[in-house]
Write a structure and sequence with these properties.
By secondary structure, the protein is of the alpha+beta class. The chain has 3 domains: 2-113, DNA Polymerase III, Chain A, domain 2 (Roll), CATH 3.10.150; 124-245, DNA Polymerase III, Chain A, domain 2; 249-361, DNA Polymerase III, Chain A, domain 2. It has 7 helices and 23 strands. The protein has helices at 7-18, 70-79, 130-138, 197-206, 244-247, 260-270, 321-330; strands spanning 2-6, 32-37, 41-46, 50-56, 59-62, 64-69, 84-89, 94-99, 102-107, 124-129, 155-161, 164-170, 174-181, 191-196, 213-218, 222-227, 230-235, 254-259, 282-297, 300-319, 335-340, 347-350, 357-361. The strands form 4 sheets. It has an 8-stranded antiparallel β-sheet with strand order 6-2-3-4-17-16-15-10. Strands 14-11-12-13-23-22-21-18 form an 8-stranded antiparallel β-sheet. The N and C termini lie far apart (68 Å).
Amino acid sequence: MKFTCERALLAEAVSTTNWAVSSKSSIQALEGLLLEAGEGLTVTGYNLETGIQTTINANIIEPGNIVINAKLLSDIIRLCPDEEVTVTVTETQTVLITCCDAKYEIIGFSAEEYPNLPEIETEQTLSLPQNVLKSMINQTIFAISTNDNKPIHTGSLFEVENGRLNVVSVDGFRLAIRTEALESIKTDIPFSFVVPGHTLREVEKLMDDVEDLVEIMLGRKHITFSIGTTTIIARILEGEFLNYKNAIPKTNTISTSVVTKELITSLERVSILINERIKNPVRCIFSDNFIQLLCTTPLGKSQDHCRLLEPSEKLEIGFNNRYLIDALKACPDAEVKLELNTHLSPIVMKPKEGDSYLYLILPVRLKADNE
């Protein structure tokens, strides 16, 4: 096996696939990347749960395949000069890497030791522009649970129904929903699946703000995202996802709106006294044309206010500051609609027009002494 290619291309391929490599595994080959030289150079990383495969342009002098330790290969390519790299594999699985004056001779592993990626019998397919899927993930991923007590909520629900795609994340304290119409879907039968959060973070990184399509193929146990010349395959999460539609209040007695950036700024001001050890809630007092924001912690007191664009009935309610800020930063609009009921009911954020997103945050019970 022998090939040459640009260092930058190889570095990008190694970086992309390296995420799916096992840091420690009983199968030594899984700590490496599989390089296959054929019509181009295909690089694969796989940890038995998630696999990433990408193909780059290379001058293939002699076809073949080899597994190289991922960390070692990554370090070598990263430090090589920005010139052409030549990789040669001998009959004894020795890998020779040269780039200008830099030369390395390392041990490789037989590709036969590398497990095959799962073969998916596709049951459903859908496609949508990269920029759309990227925004849908970005605007919901913050609400994915990090608690392994309910593994199903460590991923996002992808729900296809009535010609629309809903991406839903929930962590027990907040709910995030993004909705987009699908221009082409081959079935009228609703279906859904849950993608692990760590997979979605990698999918988001691979996409650009372009209208090129992402192809999503759903199998019985796996999901595949095809983005250009890169494919990510992951095991879908199994279990019963929250019936999120029942969690959304059907009616709200208070409906107002704010300038999104103004409320974020006010929240950040009063949150200065909150840190990882001190997580006191922010007290929000809705009244007339303002929200008064107050916070009391062992470090002191802070307050600020934010104007409302429509008058509000009086309501005093407490929230985790980070949950409010995360949701507001995910809102793509300059103005956002706020809906509330009582001090024990969640706040709902949605667009002033349409239903492209919805964020729901549960309140925190306030103490009488403002702590």
